[in-house]
TrEMBL record, chains A, B:
This is NADH dehydrogenase. GO terms for molecular function: NAD(P)H dehydrogenase (quinone) activity. Keywords: FAD, Flavoprotein, Oxidoreductase. Residues 6-323 form the FAD/NAD(P)-binding domain. It comes from Alteribacillus bidgolensis. It comes from the Bacteria. One of its GO terms (biological process) is aerobic electron transport chain. Its cofactor is FAD. Belongs to the NADH dehydrogenase family. The keyword Transferase does not apply. The keyword Transmembrane does not apply.
Length: 401, 401
C-alpha cells in the first residue's frame, strides 16, 4: 500500500451513503481512493417506502440521485450489481463491469425478504421494498380497484388486501393503505364496505417489542379504519389468489403484501462468510471475524443486544450509526490508530400509522397521535440533514407541522 | 290513454340525454310522464374516453351526474339495466326493478364492441369504451410500466401496446397514448426505445372515409411518435399475451386494445327486432318498422346514406340530431300531428391525435394541427351547450386556446 489505498463501499442504502459522506470528511483527498457501488444511480429511503407503495407519496420523494448527494470529485461511483466478494483476494465481482480490487471493504448491501420457508411468497406476493417494488404495489392496488367494476359478477378478492406481518413495515404500510382507501373508493366508484384489509401475524402480538399500550392504540386505530387483525396466525402458503393459513382458513385476495421481516443479502452467503440468515455476527469494531480489512454494516450485520440477549433489529438508525463508526475506523486503519468499538445509541422508535397518526417511544416517553407523527417527521428530516445538510433537508424533507 | 302518456327513454348516452332534455321543452309538465333509465347515475361522453383510457385526462371530466343535467322535477330517473323490450306488450324488463310500462319508447341503448368473430377479444383485450373500461385501461397501462423494472429478465411484451383498428377510436386512442409515453417513461425510469406501439387494421387504409391527405398527415405524425402501422392486416386471434395476425405473425403484448368498431346493443336482438348486427333499419321518422310507438336512435339505429349507399357511421353527432327529431315526433304523436322525417346534417368530423394535434373536415375544408384541434374542442363544447347550456359548458368544457 505504497500508493493511496482503495476503499470500496458496496451499497448505497443508509449505511453505504453515510459511510461515503463521512469518509470524505475524515480523510483528505490524497489519503484514499473511495469507490461506491450501487445497482441504481439513486439512493432511496427504505423506511419511507410504505408511503409510495400505498400511493400516499410520490416515489420520487423517497429517492435522490447519488451524485446530487455525494461529491463525485471525491468519490468514484460505479452503477452495477454486486455478485460476489472474494474475501481472500481482496476483489469484488460485479455483474457488468468485471472485478474491482480493494484494500478496505465496507459491505452495506442491505436485506432481502425473509419467507420463513412459506411457499409462493416470491411468485405471488409483493415483497420488494424498493422504489421499483413500491411503484408496482401502488399501481397494482389501483388496477384492482379499476378492474372491480368491470367484472360481470362481483369478485371480492380484487378488493381484499392481505398484509403478511404485523411488524414495523406491515403496520406502516396498512396505516397508509387504510388511510387512502376512502379516497380510492371515491376515485373508482366503489362502496367502502366492499374493501377488506387483513393483517396476519404469526407472533403472539402485533409490533413485537413495542409497549403494549402503544400496540393497542395502533390496533384500535387501524381497526376503526376497517383493518382486521389475525394475530398468532401463521400463513402456510401464498397462492395466486390469496393465502392459506395454518389453521386451514383460506383468504382469497388478489393482493398479498409480504412484510414479515428480512434477511441479509444473498451475496453474504455466496461469498462464504459465516452467517445466520445472511447476517454476519461482526466484531465489536464492525469487522467481519477473521478479516482485518472487511467491515459489514446495516442489515447484513448481526449484533447482540446484551440487555435483551437478542439481536438488534435491522434498522436505518443502527446502520447510520455503524457507518459513522466505520468511517472513523477506516481512518484509524489507514493512520494505524486504534479502532473504536461500536455502541448503538437507540434514540427512539416511531411507527407512522397513516395520515397524522403515529406511535412511538423516544427515550422513556411514549408518544401517540400527532406528537408521535411530529417526531417521526423530525427523525426523517434528521437523516436528510446528516446526509446532505440543510439543502437536502429542505428539498426532500417532510413538513412536521 | 285518457291519463298522461308514459314516455320511456332507455339509455343516457348522447341520444337519450338529448331526447330527455328536449322533450321537457317540447311538452308541458301535464302532457306526459317522462322516465329515463340508465345503468349508471351519470352520463359520460363516449367520444372523449380515449383520453382517460390513455391517462391524459381524468375520467371525471368525461362524465356528469344525470340529475345535475336533467330536471328531476320533470323527469323520473331509474338507475337500472335494461334486459328486454317486450314490443307487443309495451313493457320493458329491468334487471333489478322489474317491469316498466310505456306508451312511447325511445331506445337509445348505445353499442357494444364488434369482434368480427375474432377469438379471444372479450377474454384478453381491453374493449369497454365506458368510464369503468377507460379507468381499467389507464391503470393497466401504468401497471405494465411499473412491472417492467421488477422482472428478473426484460419482458418486452409488458411495454408493447397493440391497438386493433385504425378507425376513429383506435387513432384517437393511440394519439393520446403516444403523446403520453415519454411522460410514462420518465415516471417509471424506462428508456423510450423500449416501448413499442402497433396499430393493426384489416382494411386497406387507416381512418377509412377520411381524405387521404389527412390520413397521411395523421400517420406520419403518429409514426414520428413511434407508432408502427400494420394496414391491410387482419388479426386472427387475441391471446393472453398478444395477437396473431392472419399472415401468421405473432406480436407479443400484454396490452391489446380493441377498437375495430361497434355493433348495436344485444337488447335489440334479444327483444326480437329485425336487425343487422344489433342495428335496426329505422323508418324515416326513426320508428322501428311495424311499431307506431317505438323509436330507435343512436348506435342501435341503421340509416342508409343515399349518396354513398352505405350506412351512416354511428356517431354522437347523428345520435344528437336524431334525438331532436324524436322529441319533436313524440310531441307530434301526442298532439296527433304529422311526424317529421329525419335528415342528418353532417357538419364535419375531427379526429384528435393527442397534444395539440388533430385532423378534420368541416364543410369542404380540410383542417390540420392546431386549427383542427381548435375545432375539435369547439365541437365538444357545443355538445355541452346543447345539453346543459352555458353552465355545463363552463364546468366541463375544453379550453380551445
Amino acid at each position: 500500500m505504497a500508493t493511496k489505498p482503495n476503499i470500496l463501499i458496496l451499497g448505497a442504502g443508509y449505511g453505504g451513503m453515510v459511510t461515503a459522506t463521512k469518509i470524505t470528511k475524515e480523510l483528505g483527498h490524497n489519503e484514499a481512493n473511495v469507490t461506491l457501488v450501487s445497482k441504481h444511480d439513486y439512493h432511496y429511503q427504505t423506511t419511507w417506502l410504505h408511503e409510495p407503495a400505498a400511493g400516499t407519496m410520490h416515489h420520487d420523494r423517497t429517492r435522490m440521485k447519488i451524485d446530487d448527494v455525494i461529491d463525485i470529485n471525491k468519490i468514484n461511483f460505479i452503477q452495477d450489481e454486486v455478485v460476489e466478494i472474494h474475501r481472500e483476494e481482496n476483489k469484488v465481482s460485479l455483474k457488468n463491469s468485471g472485478q474491482v480490487e480493494f484494500d478496505y471493504l465496507v459491505t452495506a448491501l442491505g436485506a432481502v425478504p425473509e419467507t420463513f420457508g412459506v411457499e409462493g411468497v416470491f411468485d405471488y406476493s409483493f415483497n420488494k421494498w424498493t422504489v421499483n417494488g413500491a411503484r408496482e404495489m401502488k399501481d397494482h392496488i389501483e388496477y384492482m380497484f379499476a378492474k372491480y367494476n368491470n367484472e360481470p359478477e362481483p369478485k371480492d378478492e380484487l378488493l381484499t388486501f392481505v398484509v403478511a406481518g404485523a411488524g414495523f413495515t406491515g403496520i406502516e404500510f396498512i396505516g397508509e393503505l387504510s388511510e387512502r382507501v376512502p379516497e380510492l373508493c371515491k376515485e373508482y366508484d366503489i362502496p367502502k364496505s366492499k374493501v377488506k384489509m387483513y393483517v396476519i401475524e404469526a407472533a403472539p402480538t402485533a409490533l413485537p417489542g413495542f409497549d403494549p399500550e402503544l400496540v393497542e392504540y395502533a390496533m384500535n386505530l387501524l381497526e376503526n379504519r376497517g383493518v382486521e387483525f389475525k394475530i398468532n396466525t401463521p400463513i402456510s402458503e401464498v397462492k395466486e389468489n390469496g393465502v392459506i393459513l395454518k389453521d386451514g382458513e383460506e383468504i382469497k385476495s388478489s393482493t398479498v403484501v409480504w412484510a414479515t421481516g428480512v434477511r441479509g443479502n444473498p451475496v453474504i452467503e455466496k461469498s462464504g462468510f459465516e452467517n445466520m440468515r445472511g447476517r454476519v455476527k461482526v466484531d465489536p469494531d464492525l469487522r467481519a471475524p477473521g478479516h482485518e480489512n472487511i467491515f459489514i454494516i446495516g442489515d447484513c450485520s448481526l449484533m447482540i443486544n446484551e440487555e435483551t440477549e437478542r439481536p438488534f433489529p435491522p434498522t436505518a438508525q443502527i446502520a447510520m450509526q455503524q457507518a459513522e463508526t466505520v468511517a472513523a475506523n477506516l481512518k484509524a486503519l489507514i493512520k494505524e490508530d486504534k479502532l473504536k468499538e461500536f455502541k448503538p445509541d437507540i434514540k427512539g422508535t416511531v411507527a407512522s400509522l397513516g395520515g397524522k397518526e403515529a406511535i412511538g417511544v423516544v427515550g422513556n416517553k411514549k408518544l401517540f397521535g400527532t406528537s408521535a407523527n411530529f417526531m417521526k417527521k423530525m427523525i426523517d428530516n434528521r437523516y436528510l440533514w446528516i446526509l446532505g445538510g440543510v439543502g437536502l433537508t429542505l428539498k426532500k424533507g417532510k413538513n412536521p407541522f
